[in-house]
Amino acid sequence: MNELQLRNGTVFDPLNRISGERMDLAIRDGTIAEAVSSKAMVIDASGMIVMPGGVDIHSHIAGSKVNSGRILRPEDHEKDVEERTSITRAGVGYSIPSTFTTGYRYARMGYTSVVEPATPPLKTRHTHEELNQIPIIDKACFPLFGNNWFVMEYLKEGKLEECAAYIAWMLKATKGYAIKIVDPGGVEAWGWGRYLKRLDDEVPHFAITPREILRGLCKINKLLGMPHAIHVHTNNLGNPGNYLTTIETMDCVANLASSGKPIIHITHVQFTGLTGNSWLNVGSGAPEIADYVNKHDHVTVDPGQVIFGDTTTMTADGPFQFLLHKLSGNKWVNVDVEGETGAGIVPFRYRRSNYVNAVQWGIGLELMLLVKNPWKIYLTTDHPNGGPFTSYPKVVTWLMSKGARGRVLAKINKNARRRLDLPGIDREYTFEEVAIVTRAGTSKSLGLSQKGHLGIGADADVAVYNIDANSVDPSRDYEVVRKALAKAAYTIKNGKIVAKDGEVVATPIGTTYWVDPKVSNDLMQQTTTSLSAKFEDYYTVRMANYPVEESYLKSPTRIEVLAEV
Amino acid sequence: MKEIVLTVKKTLNVPVECSEISPSSLAGKTLDQIRAMEVWEGNRRNSLEDIFNIKEEDGITSEDHALRIVGDASIIRKIGYRMTGGSITIEGNAGMYLGEEMSGGSITVSGNAGAWLGSKMKGGTIEVKGNAGDFIGSSYRGSRKGMKGGTIIVHGNAGTEIGCWMRNGTIRIKGSSGIFPGMHMSNGTIYIEKDCSGRAGAQITGGKVIIGGYVPSILPSFNVEEVRERVKVGEEKITGPFYVFTGDLNEEGNGKLFINMAKNPHLKWCEEYLEL
Predict the structure, then answer these.
(1) Domain spans, chain A
(2) Which of A177, A197, A176 lies closest to A185 in space, CA to CA?
(3) Which residues lie below 8 Å from residue A384, measured CB to CB, with a gap of 6+?
(4) Interface residues on B facing A, Cβ-Cβ cutoff 8 A
(5) Run of H or E residues at B192
(6) Neighbour-count burial for B104-123, b at 16+ CB within 10 Å, e otherwise
(7) What ipTM did this prediction achieve?
(8) How buried is A255 (Cβ within 10 angstroms: 0-12 exposed, 13-18 middle, 19+ buried)?
(9) Which residues contact A17 (CB under 8 A, 6 or more apart)?
(10) What's the Cα-to-Cα distance from A349 to each of A369, B36, B179, rounded to whole Å?
(11) Domain spanning A3-52+458-504: which superfamily?
(12) Residue A486: CB partners within 8 Å, gap ≥ 6?
């Protein structure tokens, strides 16, 4: 029996409505227990903050594009090298760290679950190979469906149930967790040399619009009973004036909502919250978007916060990456994945002195601060698109301290500063709110009921930070907060101490969650028969060779959900 | 002032990484401290005295620290890494990454130097009496930040892609060079006194590449502009006459190629475009 007791910590566990109470925490055999025996190992957490382990909802940590990014950027490896220790492996990479290093760095910050939010279904075998290599943290990945030929065909023909069965088959085949939609229809259209700027533009050859794709997949998500909402990267990303597209995207599924449960998640809004009509007059659309989010319960968002400095942008949105390559003149990679999606990679440096970059930085923070309900917004940097995930502690200090963000504001482009609402926003996050946007809210959104809280029976994923909530004022002592968050005093994963004082002390392998929606046998049989013919027509791969076997995953956890069809 | 003399005391079989060896990093250290400094020999952590006999010698008049390396250092890498001043004299060959990121001082090599000589260099002078390898004054692989200042002089021949992503400074090769001199460069001067194997100035956006000898051909993405009698390299005026080409048009660049007319009679065809 493996027992552990955390004594006298100041606990923030928003899902169980515990906010800053001094209490003990008992852990037995990897889960939170009522009490432990006297033989339990005791950790004195007095003067420290105890939170559930962090849950990151959107971070590109594995898969073919991440690896292409590594190949593209030897200079990113050179500047960030970690030597091996007796426990950890050596690794490199600042914005795209190697697999092992990714796991270590998350664990050091007290994060214990991370989602890879975009994997081309055909290349998901590669994604799982990398997820298998990432130690400590629990993982999941979202396959891309927004430009999938079969999905577009089914939806155009109005075959919603067959499409649902197809997606159920694909989730099982790829061991995926949720439906990810990137630039619906837009990547396919760009393959034919066209840009989809509006939700009602038609995808060439498919005669379907992004609105129809979004609504169709949103209905399917509900039919399948998926734990997470549809995870959407909107059309028209990176173009001035696109905040209207973002609002339109959120609104286009509004009437599908029922029971107040979020049905759409809009990700990295910083890239899709631009006002204006050219790069010269872009501004922040965060107030308008936040206003919409505040008034509607069917939507959640994350900012994809920009961190000034060098990073690597990578997304399935090929058209946007082409634009970025043209704007920056930097080297790039572009990929077309047959019948499914595209992708692009461009190194990028966000500069404080650059007007547009400074506005982007402001949009993320404005959004975080203007969305009133912290359960509707999650902290991300869209790693590595806005900046590396290792910057989370810095972002938290910007949220918790007006002074901390004021220091950066003083150094950014002055025209951007003048245009942003950020200087006038006084809100400062509390530790409870930080716990919501970094773990409780994200795990709730992902439907991982055993994560993100410290109730009896929950997974014993715990982060202990060396911050005395009584004496430390995060508004003033933000440096203390930042340092403590960057190096957790203890990170506990499944009841085992994996990091201590910012050093990795054990490297267990975490699980990979995947969702298996059960649709009726008849429907599945009927769909797979027609699918097999489609595979012969469209793919270079036979249908039988397509699925990733469950045995291929080092430590899979299947989550079965009952579909309505 | 005293000079520190490092004599290679054994035959080295695996590369040694000596980013610690520079006058600035040895400054203020006692001889014992210097002997105990850490170097990597292959995958082993060794001390400096495992590789070198180290002693001090009198007779230096300069104010700055001076360092002399005697023996074959051809697989010792990163000598003079980030040096800011003083001097290094190498009596023998030097390995890769000599003078990487140096910002001041001077390095002299009596033998040959390896690849990435003066890579990412910001200032100071490097002089190599023998030949040097590829990527002289270039950036790290994948990076856009090449040499930014200073001077590199090679008396012998140089390898390929010298001055890759160069942003400023001067590279002067008294012998010949391999292909792609000045690849991606945006500013600065590369002067190859003898021949070049070709593809000079590929993707340059600025700066100048001067070739005093034979070059097989000019990339098609360059326009012939004029004939010039002389071209300046620092303070010195080099006499030609030279064909002047601008490009690389693929990058909408405004770099210049100066190609010696007399040594390249096969390029006479371009003169008919000069009349226009």
Answers:
(1) 3-52+458-504
(2) A197
(3) A60, A69, A95, A96, A311, A312, A313, A314
(4) 139-144
(5) strand B189-192
(6) bbbbbbebbbbbbbbbbbbb
(7) 0.84
(8) exposed
(9) none
(10) 25, 40, 31
(11) Urease, subunit C, domain 1 (2.30.40.10)
(12) A108, A109, A390, A393, A502
Nearest residue of chain B to residue A329 (CA atoms): B251
Residue B40: CB partners within 8 Å, gap ≥ 6? B16, B17, B46
Nearest chain B CA: its distance from A71 CA (Å)? 9
Partners of B141 on chain A (C-beta within 8 Å) are: 74-75, 78
pLDDT per residue, tens digit, chain A (565 aa), is 689 999 999 999 999 999 999 999 999 999 999 999 989 999 999 999 999 999 999 999 999 999 999 999 999 999 999 999 999 999 999 999 999 999 999 999 999 999 999 999 999 999 999 999 999 999 999 999 999 999 999 999 999 999 999 999 999 999 999 999 999 999 999 999 999 989 999 999 999 999 999 999 999 999 999 999 999 999 999 999 999 999 999 999 999 988 778 999 999 999 999 999 999 999 999 999 999 999 999 999 999 999 999 999 999 999 999 999 999 989 999 999 999 999 999 999 999 999 999 999 999 999 999 999 999 999 999 999 999 999 999 999 999 999 999 999 999 999 999 999 999 999 999 999 999 999 999 999 999 999 999 999 999 999 999 999 999 999 999 999 999 999 999 999 999 999 999 999 999 999 999 999 999 999 999 999 999 999 999 999 999 999 999 999 999 999 999 999 8
CA end-to-end distance (rounded Å), chain B: 63
Tokens representing A317 are 């949105």
Nearest C-alpha of chain B: how many angstroms from A324? 16
- Full-model pTM: 0.93
Q: Is the dihedral of CA A92, A98, A104, A107 positive or negative?
A: positive
Residue B116 to residue A539: CA distance in whole angstroms: 46
Amino acid at B228: R
Q: Per the CB < 8 Å rule, is A73 touching B142? A: yes
CA distance B265 to chain A (A): 37
- Going by C-beta distance under 8 Å and a sequence separation of 6 or more, which residues neighbour residue A128? A141, A175, A512, A548, A552, A553
Q: What does the alpha-carbon distance between residue A150 and residue A145 come to, in Å, rounded to a whole number?
A: 9
Residue B84: both structure tokens together: 């800011």
- What residues contact residue B12 under an 8 Å CB cut-off, 6+ apart? B41, B51, B72, B75, B76
Question: What is the residue extent of each domain of chain B?
Answer: 1-111, 127-276
| CA R_g for chain B | 20
Which uninterrupted H or E stretch holds A173? Answer: helix A160-174
Residue with tokens 């950036």: B139
Contacts A92 to B, Cβ<8 Å? none
Distance from C-alpha of A140 to C-alpha of A442, rounded to nearest angstrom: 13
Task: Indicate yes or no: CB of A76 within 8 angstroms of CB of B142.
Answer: yes
Q: CB contacts < 8 Å between A and B, how many?
A: 17
CA–CA separation, A343 and A257 (whole Å): 31
CA distance B225 to B247: 10
Residues A290 and A333: their CA atoms lie apart, in Å, by: 34
Cβ within 8 Å, pair B141-A75: yes
Neighbours of B246 (CB within 10 A): 18
**DSSP code of A121?**
G
Can you give the C-alpha Rg of chain A in angstroms?
A: 22
At A11, is the secondary structure helix, strand, or coil? strand
Q: Tokens 């975009």 correspond to what residue?
A: A118
Q: Do β-strands A556-562 and B52-57 pair in parallel, antiparallel, or remain unpaired?
A: unpaired
CB < 8 Å to A72, chain B: 142
Query: Which chain B residue has its CA at the smallest distance from A331's CA?
Result: B142
The token pair that represents B149 in the structure block: 């200042």
